[in-house]
Amino acid sequence: MRPSSLQLEPIENLSRARRDAGGLALVAALALALSGAACGGDEPGDTRATDGGGGTDESSETSAGTDGSTTGEDPGEFGAEEEYELRLHPAPTTPLELAMNKEQSLELFGESAKDILLIEVDTTDLLVNTLEEIKNACGTDWKQDDEDPNHDCTLTELGLSFGPNWECSAEYSMVRLLTMTPANAAVDGTSIEGLQGLADLLGVGGGFSAILAESLGIGMTEEFIDTPYLVDALKEDMLATHPNIGGDGSIMSISMWDALHDMETLGERFGPIGAHPGVLAPGFTPHSDALGPDFTMTAIASSNLRQLDGLDVDTDKEFLSIIVDTVGPTFDDPLEFDFEDPEKFSITGLALNPTVDMRFALQEHDGFVASCTTDQACWGNLPGAPVNNQSAWALDQWIAEYVVAHAGKLKYDERQFDKCYEVLFSCGLGSRVMIGPNPDFPNYPLGWAHFTINSGLLDSLLSLFNSGPPEPQYIWDLINEVGQVALHTPPGCDLAEGEADVEFTLREIGIGISGPEMSDAVRPYLQDQAGTIADLLLGNYKDNNGKVDLYYREGADGEGWLFFVHPEDQVDGAPYGYDNPGFFADAALSQKLSSTASGGAGDEVHEKLKLETGETTVYIQDDKGDVYRLLLIVPQADGAPQSIQVRVAKKLG
User: Fold this and answer.
1) Distance of alpha carbon 534 from alpha carbon 532, whole angstroms
2) Model pTM?
């Protein structure tokens, strides 16, 4: 008896079948098991004719032979009859069970696993975890209300990767930029340096840090651009623009191939492509512990394949498999999976809190990106509408200066503020900070910053040192300027423009989804691809079908039906050479007995004929254009008979 289910033990045989068949997938090992081949009697490949009584005859003719007299026609019109038994085979009752570890899954699915979407990871948590790791690479003292962030990059594994001269590294400069707050702001060499000097010298507004915090509407120890806004900018500017991510950058797709390779394939998928420098830096292989050493994926499926007896009238009896899918929604799946049912699908051996090792990269522009100032044309200098080629908005979106400016715009786009900071209890001796429209400048756009020093004496004094308040500009342009200066002037050295590209090698970064959550999350994705997975597992089962003109099967009504072959039954791409498909009442093929209408058969595609008890003579034309007479002998039965006899004779001349 042939097996009707597949357990874990034969997996190696199945994968070997895939290799040996050179791409015929698992048909050689699975087709009969899944179609529920019966025990004893005719097996696929057995083309012996029967004598109608369950025995076999070595010849292809019946033992008695006929001369055509059963039809009442001239015996000379048709040749000798050959008799065949066409039987029904029981549907498989034992489900297919696949229980696979990582290696067996790879062996079974092969490169087809690339086409199976396993999960879509929300990039928010991944980016948050990445940025927080970078910000804290040199300690956490930067969070204190102190002008000295007290950075020490020897405190962490990531910080140590900056090298022994970490204070001069581009990576440390990026840490300084990302951890800059009003309390520790370093604005030396920027256009706002003069305002800092004046405020701190005269104690205006409680000092420069207090003015910054109040005017920007943030706390003293809050980053100028905090993590949520940087995450949104990175999604839109770096991830969404990558060809293998796209969308709004919020979703990163993980295929079964990626997961089974411990995410090591992500370096190629999300690395440099075309003009895009990549989200992940080349030269480093990502790795994840999501799938542990005891990973097991178990799936139970029922088979929709049914083995049928068919007949090639000019050759012999043949066998084929068809799909009988009554579950849907597509009604053409060879295997019926239910990935939503925990009893029929499960994944074990997932890490409780999966992490990934990766190398994150960010490139800078090779030149200084100046702010657009003063002129009202600068009010329209916005993403998608740069006023000139020197604008941050004229850069590629994934460039650091664009990302920083964009994050600043996201945070301060609606900022409005107006306050005069007094000196000696006089606003006229102090300084005024304006952001957005105010009574004196009602047309200023939101986010447009204007700093003034009201005392002519102080203004003249600052001018002697070539210093003064910055020109009016958007807040995000000003922050971008401060960031660029900080990026190129780490303590103790200077980095030239174009030398501040950064790469951070990050270890054990949380993916943002737990193992149990991942196990549940994969279910709907796999269910949506259930038909595809079944096809990938079985390959093209039709490649194992014999060539037939007709076959016997049970209809949806439980009765016996004779089906004429249709293109969908054939090997894909095989020519369909039938000029007159169907069953006819006469040798001239002028009176068709069959129909494509369902009639209770549950099919509206094939030409088919419902079988009546007793003897019925019909005629067909094969794909070579020859006409054959078929005497159908159908026994009395409750429902579809388990077997019928077919006597075939070829029309002569």
Assistant:
1) 5
2) 0.76
